[in-house]
Design a protein that fits this description.
The chain has one domain (7-73, 80-102). 56% of the residues lie in helices and 0% in strands. It has helices at 7-21, 28-38, 42-57, 65-72, 90-93, 99-102. Helix 1 packs parallel to helix 3 and helix 2 (28-38) crosses helix 3.
C-alpha cells in the first residue's frame, strides 16, 4: 500500500504526536490517523515511538543509555522489553516492529 504524505498530513501528524508526547488529549480518530501512516512510514513510526516514550517516562538524560534508547525511538526503557539472549528468540523480539523493520 502506497501512502502519499501531503504537507498538511505531515503537519497534522506532527501536531498529534506533539500532543501525545505532552500527555495532552488526542482523539481516537487522530490516533488512528497517525497509526495508519506509521505502519508505512519509518519516520512517523519513530516520531510516535518517541512521543509515547516521552509521555510514559519523561525526557531522559541524553548522555545516558536511556536517553539514547529514547532518542532512537526504541523499546527498552522497561526491563521486560530488554532482549535476553538466553530466553528470547531474536525474531520473536522484533515481532512487534512495524512492517518495514520485519521486511529488512
Amino acid at each position: 500500500m502506497n501512502m502519499f504524505l501531503t504537507n498538511n498530513s505531515r503537519l497534522k501528524i506532527k501536531d498529534i504526536v506533539k500532543r501525545i508526547s505532552l500527555d495532552k488529549p488526542v482523539s481516537l480518530e487522530e490516533r488512528i490517523f497517525v497509526e495508519k501512516f506509521s505502519k508505512h512510514n519509518s519516520t512517523i513510526w519513530t516520531w510516535l515511538k518517541k512521543a509515547n516514550s516521552l509521555r510514559r517516562y519523561g525526557k531522559q538524560q541524553s548522555d545516558g543509555i536511556n536517553g539514547l534508547i529514547q532518542n532512537l525511538g526504541l523499546d527498552g526503557l522497561e526491563t521486560e522489553n530488554h532482549f535476553d539472549p538466553k530466553n528470547d528468540d531474536l525474531a520473536d523480539w522484533f515481532s512487534g516492529s512495524p512492517d518495514w523493520v520485519r521486511r529488512s
